[in-house]
Amino acid sequence: MKTFAELNFPGRLIAVEGLDGSGKSTQIYLLKRWLEAEGIKVYFSEWNSSELVKSATSKGKKRELLTPTTFSLIHCTDFADRYERHLLPLLRAGYVVLCDRYAFTAFARDTVRGCPPDWVRGNYSFAALPDITFFFKTDLEVSLNRILEGRPKLKFFEAGMDLRLSTDPYESFRIFQGRILEQYVTMSGEFNFVVMDANENVEKQQVLVRKIVGEKIDLKKFRRRSPLPLPPAFQPPEVKEQEEDLAAV
Amino acid sequence: MSATNGKKNGRRFFGHGIPRVKVEDLAGKLIVVEGADGSGRSTQIARLVDWLETGGHPTVQVGLKRSTLVSKELEKAQEGNILSRTTLSLFYATDFADQLENIILPALKAGFIVLADRYIYTLMARDMVRGMDEGWLKNLYGIAVKPDAVFYISVQPQELVQRNLAKSATLDYWESGMDLGLSRDMFDSFLKYQTGMQGAFRKLQKTYGFTIVDGNRPVGSITKELRKKIRLVLAEKEITESD
Description:
The complex is a heterodimer. Chain A is α/β, with parallel strands linked by helices. Chain A has a single domain, classed as P-loop containing nucleotide triphosphate hydrolases (Rossmann fold, 3-Layer(aba) Sandwich). Chain A has helices at residues 24-37, 51-62, 68-92, 103-112, 117-123, 140-148, 169-190, 202-216, 237-248; strands at residues 12-18, 42-45, 96-100, 132-137, 194-197. Chain B has a single domain (27-235), classed as P-loop containing nucleotide triphosphate hydrolases (Rossmann fold), CATH 3.40.50.300. Chain B has 8 helices and 5 strands; from the N terminus they run E-H-E-H-H-E-H-H-E-H-H-E-H. Chain B has helices at 41-54, 71-80, 85-109, 120-129, 134-140, 157-168, 186-208, 219-242, and strands at residues 29-34, 59-63, 113-117, 149-154, 211-214. Chains A and B meet through helix 2, helix 3 and helix 5 of A and helix 2, helix 3 and helix 5 of B.
């Protein structure tokens, strides 16, 4: 697997990975705000699945139809859909794309569920590697406490209940998250993660994130040029509006 | 892993298989019939089921796009042709895996004869024609259990066109490979696509060694050939059972 830069894509992809409650979403949001203010062509991928794949995934989850194998495959399908429909065009167009989680989430989760690591990595091998992957590493207790403090209702698969680790969802979640953390740590070297100390203060972490992004990516190449020309005048006005709406999404 | 090694009954997975499933427990038989629409595939399967059940063998049928998990969504995806090729390929793999784990493996474990109206070979051939990497497909379908017999009913594309038109007076969008843009003319595209599919099957045959059945013959003589070969598979079953 190669990075987007190594594959000569005009765009760059930055991913954040880590346990729920590691603060990664906050960090990538703050990174996005900075890049926007710098006038960079940036896109934050919120992973909008297409309706069809979403419908199959939620049915499988609600009715607990998924096995480790089908869980892995349906998420890989979903990833492929976003990747081909969403990420690739943006990366071809020279965007800096920010992803809250990437294929590594699947590598960790599916391996913990018992799928062979090579099989999972092979299935995702159509995707290029991010140019930077930040791994927000917290102590297990810190992220568990952040998530479990409010005693949220944990979903069946989210808590890893399918693994029969414990009949108590909270206990199951703790064990499951612990195993996922181990996987992340193992992958750190394999995929060249930038390991962030996520127990550190949020502002300090963001300073470091911005510094690393600035060092690894020549940001001035990704500046937005002048606004796009308007569509040709002969088009009816309704169509113009629609196109503008689409461009704003 | 020991799961990939050959066992007494020759049962094995193509790759690592399915977590926590032991191949040696899969006592039944898996018989696959492959072939394009109009090859007589479904007719032959119906006849085989009749014959086997009359002979006292419990059977189960599986096929493409029949899973509880994603069959409806796959149907819709095809109607609109909105998924890109990797996505569609993985969606089909999900459909296959769901049936593998929920129907094929349990039935084999219970000693049933599973008749598959197409298996991973059609899925792989379709993707190969669409330029997907063979190594990637091989890894993906490493979950599949190796069948006891695979028959590919081969019919010349020119003959397939005639049969499809005689049956429904139209050609199917996907069976004509219209998504590939081989030709804007559906008739032309169908011939090109089916020729490509035959090429892919011949390539797969070299790797997986299945039986190519000449489908340009009367229904009855094809049935005869299939029965003859399946009898051998069943005889082997009885031998292993009486051990």
